[in-house]
Amino acid sequence: MSRLIPPAATLLQASADYLEHELLPTLAGYHRFQTRITVNVLRTLQRELELGPARDAAEHSRLVALLGHEGSLPALEAELAAAIAEGRIALDAPELTAHLRHSLRDALAIDNPKWAAPATPPPEP
């Protein structure tokens, strides 16, 4: 059976597009500012719906490799936090650093994609 309504990410994109391209240009001051915030919230929600499941799956895989066993994502996150706090995983452990970098990059891709863009490599000497 076909869907009767578009996916949530599509509805969010359409709403944000309307606010940004149709309504925002007609506003000034406080209402312009509040509408800009609303557009940003809708775009963040859209990215969360589109990227969140893959982000969670990738984080889960990294945590399983780091901790050495399966578990739910929240349980593995809590275990990692406890292991760091108790000194069972060194702060400078390369596998921890790699996990944290990937997690931060994935979070930024949702929260603010401009910050998550890959850095321009330095010029060759």
Helices and strands in order, then pairings?
Blueprint: H1 8-23, H2 29-67, H3 73-85, H4 94-111, H5 113-116
Helix pairs in contact: 1-2, 2-3, 2-4
Shape: elongated
Tell me the number of helical segments per DSSP (H or I, 4 or more residues long).
5
Order of helices and strands: HHHHH
Structural class, by secondary structure, is: mainly alpha
How many individual domains? 1
Low-confidence regions:
none
Helix coverage percent of residues?
Answer: over 70%
Percent of sequence in beta strands: under 5%
Oligomer: single chain
Mean pLDDT over the residues: 92
Would you write up a description of this structure?
The protein is mainly alpha-helical and 125 residues long. It has one domain (8-115). It contains 5 helices and no strands. Helix 2 crosses helix 3.
Summarize the structure.
The protein is built from five helices and no strands.
Jot down its keywords.
125 residues; mainly alpha; 0% strand
